[in-house]
Amino acid sequence: MPNASPLTALIVIADEGRRYALDQPLRKAGFKIRDASNGAEGLRVATEIPDIIILDLHLPDMSGFEVCCRLKAHASTSAIPVLHLSDGPVESGEFAGHWERGDEAYLTHPVEAVELLSSINSLLRGRQAQRQFSSFLEAAPDAVVIADQGGKIVRVNGQAERMFGRSRDELLGQAVEILLPERFRVKHREQRASYLANPTTRPMGSGLKLWGLRKNGSEFPVEVSLSPIFDHDGILVASIVRDVTERSRIEAMMQDSEVRYRRLFETAKDGILILDTLTGRITDANPFMSELLGYSHEHFLGKELWEIGLFSDKAANEAAVRTLQDKGYIRYEHLPLETSQGLRVEVEVVANAYREDHHRVIQCNIRDITERSKLEKQMQEQAAVLEDLHRRKDEFLAMLSHELRNPLAPITNAVQLLSLQKHENKLQHQARTIIERQVGQLARLIDDLMEVSRINTGRIHLQLERVGLNGVVERGVETTRPLMDQHHHELKVSLSSQPIWVYADPTRLEQVVVNLLTNAAKYTADCGTIAIAVQQEGNEAVLRVRDSGVGIAPELLPRIFDLFTQAERSLDRSQGGLGIGLCLVQRLVEMHDGKIEVESKLGKGSEFVVHLPIMATLPISPTSPKHIVPGSHGAALRVLVVDDNLDSAQSLGLLLEATGHDVQLAYDGPTALQATLDYRPHVVLLDIGLPDLDGYEVAKRIREQPALKNIVLVAMTGYGNVADLRRSGDAGFNHHLVKPADFMKVKEILATVPEKAI
């Protein structure tokens, strides 16, 4: 006997001498001995679970057989092997039947040491086998329920207890069908009886799908298999029960998914083809494919895609299949297909490769895009038309502004002439002031039209430099002061106490200020209040323009900066304008990397807030232009005025003569060239848009004459964008003025020309 781990033997014998006779050989064999002199004491000590019990059949309080039955009935002691002792042979067949169980043996007094140890060794080997079997049962992932031939449960594992919610004591001795709902009990009983009739033909039984019943009455799906266990009492049947709740749920989901897929496959309004990935041949087609092309379902089966017209030839088809095999996805647009009636259908194809039941397949979704393609073509044509209209609109705006500036130029000149009159009466002064103000308004409207066209076509280029925001606001306020005075507005100006420098185009930034103040004045009733403030907030320069005007309706706020958007005008008071000013403001602010916001409530005024980035570092200031020493303000210059607009030429000539200059007029290009040679003017004020020979060509020819190289050429035109300025410079012009030219600028240019330049 191994003695590395001492075994414990319980000796239950009333006679002390007999106990001692057995005690000695067992101790020598390495056993630890516990003893008891009666059955009750033996049952108590047995709860300590000895490795073997030596039990006398004749005890003072109860028979050894009764003690054994109690031991076997209790779960904790049922597996302890028992060696029975008696004074002589036992006649009872009932006793002998029990001693054939495999965990019990029988000896008579007196017992020889060798026979004793041999019997104990045999019982312990049987117990080890039982322990191994028990370990196997407990480790099993499924519930195991062992029943005798009558269907009574004799053993269960822990998984069975957990699965059915019943303890071992509640299960042992019960009919195995207690674990099944009533409707499945007969079926299981018949299967078990059939199995017991011939268990060797199917040693592992056959899976049976049933439902299990928990103690709380809930049911769950199970799969039951039967297995035989050969015992001394005959064949026992082990029912191996597997909870298939999760598997059943997954199977149900897969079945539902298959049903849904088939329903989608059958009812989809796109064509669907299923292909074998290896061969590229069609294995299934949905009804819409037949509807789309007019062929039967069988027509598609076994064909490759090129055979139904999706690809031009077999090589293109094979290349597509290889791409699918490698990448698992392809997409084609605008593939042509032909119906059985010879009609052309344009389709979009999206194909995916995936696994289906351990086999790779390809699914091709085919969508009829014939109508969509027609719409796309129409949209492309419409976009081309809109683009052409947009271009023609810009050309029209440029031409319109040019044509409007032509009549404005002589009107402006005439107003300047009137202002030179020394004996102007009050009525004449009022009339001239009105004309001057309205001409200025017309000039601003024309400028706005041109600005929008320039911004939309990207023709505006900012001349960025270090700019003080306070100064920009002051100039904007000065420009709009007459408008404020006209409507008796109270204008509150709050400048920053410290200089705020921004990297900006001062002219464009002043335009932002002027447009915001003008907009506020237009929509504020007479005697209202307008406030403009400049301050620094963090790393931003913030400009606020607030008014007490009519406000902006909520539905108009989201598009207040859109082109041609205006507040609704009333019949009694038109605000004027074209709905361009705020659009220009937003575009110019964004070009300076800034943003503009607006808050307003109808009837409670509006506030526009401009955010501009403050200069992080001061850029290098551009080189200052060379200072040109002006000639004597009183010097009389020879000035040639060239303009095909008779009123414009004559009015400008009269202005120049009134300021002491000698003037000649020309109305076309060839005449201007000849007059230049004959008259030798100091300055030529030259219109660009001349008949026969335009101003650019006239300027080039003048510059070709060495004797005329010092003549100052001033372009007078309705075009004033960057490209126009560049072109006039290339033609040889010294200055570029946009009609109606401010006569003060003309005078400034004339003042820079030396009297003896020619």
Description:
Helices cover 42% and strands 23% of the residues. The chain is built from 22 helices and 27 strands. The strands form six sheets. It has a five-stranded parallel beta sheet with strand order 2-1-3-4-5, sandwiched between helices. Strands 7-6-10-9-8 form a five-stranded antiparallel beta sheet, sandwiched between helices. The chain is elongated. It starts with 7 loop residues before the first strand and ends in a 7-residue tail after the last helix.
Key terms:
758 residues, alpha/beta, five-stranded parallel sheet, five-stranded antiparallel sheet, 27 strands
Summarize the structure.
The protein has 22 helices and 27 strands. The protein is an alpha/beta fold and 758 residues long. The strands form six sheets. A five-stranded parallel sheet has the order 2-1-3-4-5, sandwiched between helices.
**Through-space gap between termini:** 140 Å
Which structural class fits the helix and strand makeup? alpha/beta
The strand line-up of the biggest sheet is 2-1-3-4-5
How many distinct helices? 22
Helix content: 40-55%
- Describe the biggest sheet? 5 strands, parallel
Low-confidence stretches: 92-100, 201-205, 569-575, 618-633
Principal-axis shape: elongated
Secondary structure: number of strands = 27
Tell me the radius of gyration: 55 Å
Strand content: 15-25%
Average of per-residue pLDDT values = 82
